[in-house]
């Protein structure tokens, strides 16, 4: 025969296990943003594109950006055999001098997927759009928690994407 104490203890234990289980399931589930990122990264990888170029416009919504900010204008990034080959300012054609600096985080499409995963850990206020055919990110916006999409603080835009013909020098 079960005493009231044993019955209450079993009930409390069952409730605690249920709470822990639900909590663990919530912690381990991927957000819709990360699921979409993963799906598009898989689409991108299936394309098996190793040589390509794109223009990246990386903007910060700050009042007084530093004069020496390398993100002052869009950058054309050329990738060969899956690695950054050259970075030039799109407007002037001048080589980006700080290749190992800030652009090293985003100087190929694979790194953009990683960048999205990284910033999603820092903020829940992110939107990402992807190319429907190839899967690469085309628009990444992050804004302070509690603010709306019009108050973005970081905005990366990928445009003029093209696959490079292997015959091109």
Description of the molecule:
The chain is an alpha+beta fold and 169 residues long. It has two domains: 1-30; 31-163, no CATH class. Helix content is 33%, strand content 25%. The protein contains three helices and six strands. It has helices at residues 4-28, 32-47, 109-122; strands at residues 52-60, 75-80, 83-89, 126-130, 137-142, 154-163. A six-stranded antiparallel beta sheet has the order 3-2-1-6-5-4, with helices on one face. A hairpin with a 6-residue loop joins β4 and β5. The longest helix is centred in the N-terminal third of the chain and has 25 residues, at 4-28. The relative contact order is 0.17. The mean pLDDT is 81.
Largest sheet: 6 strands, antiparallel
Work out the radius of gyration: 23 Å
Averaged pLDDT? 81
Q: pLDDT under 50 segments (min length 5)?
A: none
**Spatial strand sequence of the major β-sheet:** 3-2-1-6-5-4
Helix content: 25-40%
Strand content is: 25-35%
Number of strands: 6
Descriptive labels:
25% strand, 33% helix, alpha+beta, six-stranded antiparallel beta sheet, 169 residues, 2 domains
Q: Would you spell out the secondary-structure blueprint of this structure?
A:
Elements: H1 4-28, H2 32-47, E1 52-60, E2 75-80, E3 83-89, H3 109-122, E4 126-130, E5 137-142, E6 154-163
Antiparallel strand pairs: 1-2, 1-6, 2-3, 4-5, 5-6
Helix pairs in contact: 2-3
Short description:
The protein has 169 residues and is α+β, with helices and mostly antiparallel strands.
């Amino acid at each position: 025969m079960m005493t009231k104490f044993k019955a209450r203890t079993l009930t409390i234990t069952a409730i605690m296990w249920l709470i822990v289980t639900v909590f663990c399931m919530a912690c381990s589930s991927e957000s819709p943003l990360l699921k979409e990122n993963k799906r598009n990264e898989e689409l991108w990888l299936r394309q098996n594109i190793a040589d390509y170029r794109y223009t990246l416009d990386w903007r910060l919504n700050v009042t007084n950006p530093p004069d020496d900010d390398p993100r002052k204008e869009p950058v054309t990034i050329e990738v060969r055999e899956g690695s950054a080959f050259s970075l030039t300012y799109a407007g002037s054609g001048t080589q980006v001098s700080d290749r190992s600096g800030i652009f090293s985080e985003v100087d190929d499409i694979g790194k953009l997927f990683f960048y999205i995963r990284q910033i999603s850990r820092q903020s829940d206020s992110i939107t990402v759009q992807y190319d429907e055919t190839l899967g690469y990110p085309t628009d990444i916006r992050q804004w302070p928690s509690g603010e709306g999409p019009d108050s973005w603080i970081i905005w990366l835009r990928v445009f003029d994407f093209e696959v490079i013909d292997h015959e091109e020098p």
